[in-house]
Design brief:
Layout: H1 2-7, H2 15-29, H3 32-77, E1 86-90, E2 96-100, H4 103-118, H5 125-131, H6 136-143, H7 146-158, H8 162-178, H9 181-201, H10 203-214, H11 219-242, H12 250-268, H13 270-276, H14 284-303, E3 311-312, E4 315-316
Length: 321
């Protein structure tokens, strides 16, 4: 009976209370010096964390402020997209200019300047990469070599004329819909004014295209097919609206060549013209007057009967016999 009673008694659970007692004894056994050292170590780590966080926040604030300043500066100057971080690089005169962070864009911008200044053959890829602050391998990565870089550079600099050509296409459509001679003459006059402004504003594009015309490369055919040809058709259409009888003739192309030649001469001989007229430079008022003179001269020729004056079948100044 006694044996059965003892067998039903629950055994004492010794493991858990003993473990807790040992942990408690270990904590209580720590010396005041060790506790103080531990607390000091925690305080140091906490202080370092706060300091590090504050430093990171301050650095982030400075970076954000600098990026905002550069973005606003770029937006004010019309370079790049507003709100995008920019980089400042020194130009030849030692002043700062804002360039995009994109390595590809930096390469194209610097390439445009160096190809225009030195020509294709004399431009060094290594020097170009150094000026653009990229590795030489970046040029091969983005463009597969110098020849493709040159082709892409021509496209890149000529994109500066996109606004001009968009405006020209709009004038072409409006004049055609109105269908009057006055509308066509006004559209051609406006086209000449804006073309003169474009030649004086797009320095790199003009110089690069002038070099390409004097020293043609394989890229010229592609650029003419993709950009110059389709856009030149706008001028031909404007002239054709004034002289429908000249459609698809060499005489029509000669008229267009005359208009373009007068505008390009004004840009190409600007220093000589300024010297002859005792001007320091050709200001905006002079350019407007010159564009009006080109328009008056060209429109007078287009009003004259074919063969009597102006550009005849054998060239400028031919007359009927």
């Amino acid at each position: 009976m006694a044996h059965s009673t003892r067998s039903k008694t629950k055994p004492r659970q010794k493991s858990k209370p003993i473990a807790e007692q040992k942990q408690k004894s270990a904590r209580s056994a720590r010396t005041p010096k060790a506790s103080k050292s531990l607390r000091a170590s925690k305080s140091v780590r906490s202080a370092r964390s706060v300091t590090s966080g504050a430093a990171r926040a301050k650095a982030a604030e400075k970076t954000s402020a600098r990026a905002s300043k550069l973005a606003l500066s770029a937006a004010a100057e019309g370079k790049g997209k507003a709100g995008r971080p920019k980089r400042r690089l020194p130009d030849e005169e030692g002043t700062d200019r804002v360039l995009p962070f994109s390595a590809r864009e930096r390469i194209l911008m610097i390439a445009g300047e160096q190809f225009a200044r030195n020509g294709y053959a004399a431009t060094s890829v290594r020097e170009l990469a150094e000026t653009a602050e990229v590795n030489v391998g970046a040029i091969s990565y983005h463009f597969e070599g110098k020849e493709q870089l040159y082709q892409e550079t021509l496209r890149y600099v000529l994109r500066g004329a996109e606004t001009f050509w968009a405006s020209a296409r709009f004038r072409q459509v409006v004049a055609a819909r109105l269908g009057t001679r006055i509308a066509a003459e006004e559209a051609l006059r406006k086209h000449i004014h804006e073309f003169v402004q474009l030649l004086f504003q797009q320095e790199t594009a003009f110089t690069l295209m002038l070099r390409e015309l004097m020293e043609p490369t394989a890229a010229l055919v592609q650029v003419v097919a993709e950009l110059i040809g389709p856009n030149s058709a706008i001028l031909q259409d404007l002239v054709e609206q004034l002289r429908p009888d000249l459609k698809d003739t060499q005489q029509l192309r000669a008229y267009c060549g005359s208009i373009i030649g007068q505008c390009v001469h004004l840009r190409l001989a600007r220093r000589l013209i300024a010297h002859l007229q005792q001007r320091k430079q050709l200001d905006a008022a002079f350019l407007r007057e010159s564009a009006d003179a080109i328009a008056d001269f060209s429109l007078a020729a287009l009003r004259a009967p074919t063969g009597s004056t102006g550009i005849g079948s054998t060239g400028i100044g031919s007359t009927a016999r």
